[in-house]
Design a protein that fits this description.
- PPIases accelerate the folding of proteins. It catalyzes the cis-trans isomerization of proline imidic peptide bonds in oligopeptides.
- Belongs to the PTPA-type PPIase family.
- With about 400 residues, the chain is mainly α.
- It has one domain.
- Helices cover about 45% and strands about 5% of the residues.
- It is built from 16 helices and six strands.
- The strands form three sheets. A two-stranded antiparallel ribbon has the order 1-4.
- It is globular and about 55 Å long.
């Protein structure tokens, strides 16, 4: 089969243009659009078929959630507003167990060692000098590729941050399962969002709050949220057929409290309000502007366009996109960046071995800012600020 360890290939502006015209780009966009359509008009608790593979993925997420409890934050008097280093222990745990976890929880993956993916016809007889089949670690195990997307779904180990690029990795993990025919998009699409993605969001909110993950980007996700984009996209689709709720309803606290468990969009607004005290107009101007749109259907259409423009078409994000055999690189793009040299910020030691951080900036063009860069200034977590403020308030009975 020849699965390979996924590598980054989009390094220049010309690479980005090739990416936007590639089959993999089309696959990612089509996947997200299909999922959005599948939850159109549906609440979070709507009934949907939960297939065996969906149940197995949920068990994987249960195990990830249990891993968080193994690494409590050690409180000290000099608590910083920045990320908690215990996150790295969680991250190391996930990278260590992911292959065994996915293999045991999703047995169907073991049957794909001699099977074909949807991309095999395009990859066979590829003699292009830029094709990423020149990787030496060919393997018959699809987990060689899937684990990279899975591990990178939880944030960056070095910077202890999280952003839309990590969220995209989780979607790539799910897309790989679809391309390997583990998940059936035709019948599993609704459950992928209402069961799997919502569970993923729950885990990420836990990680963000427990380890004070920093926003990976200069302005969060362009004013939508410090961390996420897709729950707004899927959430707008959920609301697109609602007969009464309007985009401006997000400014009504009673509505937000009433519908936060029913719709992804309202839950995101509730979460933002819980950690930021000023109005949306000040800390989330994009959300404030969107609330002026007349209908949720227009918001849903705009979210797809915005996701393409601000995530999939942005070099600072897509230069971190990983390509393997399941999600192949566009023809003619740059060869993988060199990882022969490492520094303290791009590698770490785990179980006595030096591990290169796949989300580092090593080998990337120096003139391009990456997510997590903001004029060289680290971005503190609003969650951290909120929790520190709460901790500093005297107990009323003191």
């Amino acid at each position: 089969m020849g699965y390979i360890t996924p590598v980054r290939r989009i390094l220049t502006a010309p690479d980005l243009e090739k990416w936007k015209e590639s089959p993999t780009y089309d696959s990612v966009v089509s996947f997200i659009e299909t999922l959005a359509e599948a939850v159109k008009g549906k609440t979070n608790d709507a009934e949907c078929e939960v297939s065996l593979p969906v149940s197995q993925v949920l068990l994987v997420l249960d195990d990830v959630e249990k891993s968080i409890d193994k690494f409590p934050v050690i409180q000290d008097k000099n608590t910083s507003r920045f990320g908690k280093v215990e996150f790295r222990d969680f991250y190391d745990e996930i990278t260590q167990i992911s292959k065994g976890l996915l293999s045991s929880r999703i047995p169907k993956l073991q049957l794909h060692n001699d099977g074909k993916t949807d991309n095999d016809e395009n990859n066979e007889h590829c003699n292009n000098e830029h094709c990423n089949h020149d990787n030496d670690d060919d393997d018959d195990d699809p987990l060689t590729e899937i684990c990279v997307y899975f591990n990178e779904s939880w944030g960056n180990r070095t910077r202890i941050d999280y952003g839309s690029g990590h969220e995209l990795n989780f979607m790539c993990f799910l897309l790989c399962l679809v391309k390997l025919h583990v998940l059936d998009l035709e019948k599993d699409a609704t459950a992928i969002i209402l069961k799997i993605f919502i569970k993923y969001m729950k885990i990420m909110r836990n990680l963000q709050q427990k380890y004070w993950l920093e926003p990976a980007g200069s302005h969060g996700v362009w004013g939508l949220d410090d961390y996420h984009f897709l729950p707004f996209l899927f959430g707008a689709s959920q609301l697109s057929t609602h007969p009464h709720l309007k985009p401006k309803s997000i400014h009504n606290k009673e509505y937000v409290d009433m519908f936060k468990d029913k719709y992804l969009y309202f839950h995101c607004i509730w979460f933002i309000n819980s950690v930021k005290t000023a109005s949306l107009r000040w800390h989330s101007p994009m959300l404030d502007d969107i609330s002026g749109v007349r209908t949720w259907s227009k918001v849903a259409e705009g979210m797809i366009k915005m996701y393409k423009a601000e995530v999939l078409n942005k070099l600072p994000i897509i230069q971190h996109f990983f390509f393997g055999k399941i999600l192949p690189a566009p023809e003619g793009v740059s060869r993988p960046p060199s990882s022969t040299t490492t520094t303290a910020t791009t590698a770490h030691t785990h179980n006595g071995e030096t591990v290169v951080d796949p989300d580092s900036n090593e080998g990337l063009p120096g003139h391009v800012h990456t997510w997590g860069d903001c004029c060289g200034i680290k971005l503190p977590s609003a969650i951290a600020a909120h929790q520190l403020e709460a901790a500093s308030k005297p107990i009323p009975f003191d």
